[in-house]
Structure prediction request, 380 residues.
Amino acid sequence: ARDLIDVLRLVPGIDFGMDVEGVVGIGMRGNWAHEGKVLLLLDGQEMNEILYATTQFGNHFAIDQIKKIEVIRGPGSAIYGGYAEYGVINIVTRQGGDINGVMASIIHGQTTKDFMRDNISLSAGKKMGDFEWSVAGMIGQGQRSNQTYTDVHGDSYSLNGNSNLNPAYVNVGASYKGLSFRAIGDFYHMTIRDGYDAILPMTVNQNFNSMYYELKYLWKVNKKLTITPKLNYKNQAPWNTPVGDTGAYLKSASRSTANVTASYNPTRKINVVFGGEIYRDLALDKLPGDTFYNGKTSVSFYNYAFFVQGLLKTRLVNIILGARYDKHNVYGDAFVPRVGLTKKFIRFHFKALYSNSFRAPAIENIEYSGANGIHPEHTQ
Prediction:
């Protein structure tokens, strides 16, 4: 595998397609899921940008730094919220104890016409008793393709030299006993000539820059109860384009989240997970003369949520019951229950699941919703 796209295509039901402005997004079980319908987590951080809720694929993440990838091929809203309507992808990178020293790698890809990627990644980490630390980084340059792109109007141009995918990334983590801290910087730079529907007259730059921070404490109250409070902050400037077929785009957004999750095991056969969270979004428009729908250069929202999920193991079947309730100050509320029956008999596995899930409107969905407002999208 050269890329995260190659890895995820090994999972049945996952594939990728073209969005706009050179961006490739994800699909799940035949449904277009690019705009906030699959949650992408990297070491616990929500990578979806909060203006349109999208994720961007192609020479973006260093796969040699990944320890494992966990995938929920189905609704995950009951626990994970409004970006998990169709599924959840959880990427876990190598931590200090996995690296235990220094690791470096170089990848080069070449076609008959030009290079396709040149990436360098470096990781270092160590586990010393209760203290563990890791630092990982990657920088590179690549291209989407060397083929010809044709728009819906029949106009064409060569992607070779016009579809740069240049990543720069750093991931720092440290933990001591139950206390952990993580900071991720993700700077993804592209060059594009395809706009929303028509080819642009010249190649333009497009940037996706994000910073993520997390402070978490795993509090083991006793052998049965664990409580995990955490604080998250992310600041993003996605789709940053100085010019385009619909004008320049220079907006940024941040999300501050406080979450408390508890896990309780009254017996070996019963587990209950429950908790709540609240977040606040703030968006800024930095383009001179531009404002949001409120007539100002900034807009803010808040959301709170409560969730619970129980697991009961019996000889015949494992029973899972869960639900989540979200309340947003603009688009209202969403309630999503789920029930599951699972079991493993020697080498035979079965599961029967029913879930409600929802996709929470992102900041720009609210911006363009008009006088009638907007509500979450629901899936059963």
Remarks:
- The first strand starts at residue 14 and ends at 18.
- The chain has a mean pLDDT of 94.
- The CA atoms of residues 13 and 29 lie 4 Å apart.
- Residues 4-8 form the longest helix (5 residues).
